[in-house]
Specification:
The protein is α/β, with parallel strands linked by helices. The protein has helices at 15-29, 54-65, 86-95, 110-115, 133-147, 165-176, 205-211, 233-240, 244-247, 270-273, 280-300, 308-311, and strands spanning 43-48, 69-73, 100-105, 121-127, 154-158, 180-184, 201-202, 214-217, 255-257. The strands form 2 sheets. It has a 5-stranded parallel β-sheet with strand order 7-6-5-8-9, with helices on both faces. Helix 1 packs across helix 5, helix 5 (133-147) packs across helix 6 (165-176) and helix 5 (133-147) packs across helix 11 (280-300). The two termini are 19 Å apart. 41% of the residues are buried. InterPro entries: Asp/Orn_carbamoyltranf_P-bd, Asp/Orn_carbamoylTrfase, Asp/Orn_carbamoylTrfase_sf, Asp_carbamoyltransf, Asp_carbamoyltransf_Asp/Orn-bd.
Length: 315
């Protein structure tokens, strides 16, 4: 969330802005299914140029729970197939009275380019391997619900780190909130050293699993790899996945998370996906609350009345 009224990424957000959004997300999470009317008469468009299930539908559920009119853009049946640019599409929607656009794209930095030349509000639903800010928020909300705090937690993010836009947001958010972040994965899938903030450690798989309060697994994003993987799914699972044996070494009270979609039997054993330690489905549930908070904050702004007891909650 930046000063121009967009949610482009977490990188430029302050701790206070993160806490404000998390506070409002917690408000909505405590009211599952509640229908509000705070965005009555407002038009919001979802433009997904990449496949999505959880992000797309949770945004739509969030928009409809807030009372907004929702337009779902389908690239294959739009003027995009005739060569129209995303900029021209956005300007067209803007001219029709659409006030916000939720965008998922393969192109990193697209929303930054658009932000300086459009008047409607932009929300990043994932851009390339750059950032995925609302996934970051729902993950943090889930951790806060589980542990009652964020400051002082140890989180291990494991897997295909180089191609993960979820990691791209967490690298900026977690240190701001006092979380100790550990990274682990195949050497070929590690982020560039320049991308890793001070204090974030690269560790071996066993140390990551054994010392973390939250073990967050990431899938191998084959669609973003430019080279073939010379390893089978079974080999990857044994070398870098959360196997049943590795899971036994987790700390008492530690939990498993995953931004999904999950490749069962690759980065995580299928029996662990819905185990007692798993918060994966809780993350999906919290996706609606986190996106309600973002939409409401961007479109209502100063009209919001924050509950003091929630604003001062310990993060």
């Amino acid at each position: 969330m930046n000063n121009t009224g967009h949610l482009i990424g977490v990188k430029d957000m302050t701790k206070e802005q993160l806490v404000q959004l998390l506070t409002r997300a917690a408000y909505w999470a405590e009211r599952p299914g509640e229908q509000a009317n705070v965005l009555h008469g407002r038009f919001v468009a979802n433009l997904f140029f990449e496949a999505s299930t959880r992000t797309r539908f949770s945004f739509e559920v969030a928009q409809k729970r807030l009372g907004a009119h929702v337009l779902n853009f389908i690239p294959e049946t739009s003027s995009a197939v005739k060569g129209e640019t995303v900029y021209d599409t956005i300007k067209t929607l803007e001219a029709m009275g659409v006030e916000a656009a939720v965008i998922r794209t393969k192109k990193e930095g697209l929303l930054q380019e658009l932000a300086t030349s459009v008047d409607l509000q932009l929300i990043n639903a994932g851009d390339g391997t750059n950032e995925h800010p609302t996934q970051c928020l729902l993950d943090l909300l889930t951790m806060k619900q589980q542990f009652g705090r964020l400051d002082g937690l140890t989180v291990a993010i494991i897997g295909d780190l180089r191609h993960s836009r979820v990691l791209g947001s967490h690298l900026h958010a977690m240190p701001k909130l006092g979380i100790k972040l550990l990274l682990s994965g195949p050497t070929s899938m590690m982020p560039q050293p320049a991308q890793i903030p001070n204090g974030v450690r690269i560790v071996g798989m066993d140390e990551a699993v054994q010392t973390a309060d939250v073990v967050m697994m990431l899938r191998v994003q084959l669609e973003r790899h430019t080279e073939s993987l010379y390893i089978s799914k079974e080999e990857y699972h044994q070398a870098h996945g959360l196997t049943l044996e590795r899971a036994k070494s987790m700390k008492p009270g530690a939990v498993i998370m995953h931004p999904a979609p999950v490749n069962r039997g690759v980065e995580i054993h299928t029996d662990l996906v819905e185990s007692g330690a798993s918060l994966i489905q809780k993350q999906v549930t919290n996706g609606v609350a986190a996106r309600m908070a973002v939409l409401e904050t961007l479109l209502k702004g100063s009209e919001l009345k924050w509950e003091p007891s929630l604003v001062t909650a310990n993060y």
